[in-house]
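We emphasize that the prediction below concerns an isolated chain of 252 residues; any contacts that depend on oligomerization or on bound cofactors are therefore not represented. The input was used exactly as deposited, without trimming of termini.
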Amino acid sequence: MIQSPKTSRVFAGNAEIDFALQRVSNDGRAIFVVDKKHSLDSIRVISHARASTLANEVLIHVSRLSPLGLSTLVEILDSLKTSLSSAQLFALAHDLEEHIRCQALLKSVSKLQAATPSLIQHFMGWWPSTKFIAEAHGPVVSAAKMQVDNDIFAFDEPQVLVIQEDPPESSQQFLSDLIDVAQPSTVIYRSLADTEYWGNSPELQWCFAPANLDTLTGPIERTSERCRWCNEDFVPPVCPVCSSFTPNGDQA
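Result of the prediction step, given as a token string:
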């Protein structure tokens, strides 16, 4: 594949937005990954920064992933920034958003925001020994059923398990069981600062990401075309960098 002439830069996290915006310039295209909760403020700041410079090209991906999932998404994008164009990375970000599964171990679901527990699970939360596994925008299950009913860990492809760094001592047995049940191809640990995402404070957080990225990048590369206006490789029908349509589209 003939590469686009500009190199992408990938930035993420609202705490880094101001720092990253200082680097929005005419040379290179920037991709910002921001969490949905703070997306309006982040987009406003980015728009102001773009207005102060000339010919900068910025793409913004709004993510519903947990902080650990979001940082995993950015890490993957950053690793591919010299292999894929900005528009292709943008398409990949949307695909990864659907494939990265964010989960947490909770002692209570009373204030859970990222998933919707049942009424009976609210009652079960009053029992001291009860713990729950919640999947962001997905199901909530009893942690006690992990060995019996493990559909929450069912995957069609090999997965990388990303776990918060320095997990608490109280979760060590659960973590061992999790790895045994999920059978990830790789286990890695990453630092984690923000815990407001779930509403409740989780005892442990982790996410699953595809181990074989070729299953996602392959279709993107095979279907990409070169934009006649901004010279960017993109997935038709619309180039996200300049908003022009493919030559076979409505705006030839």
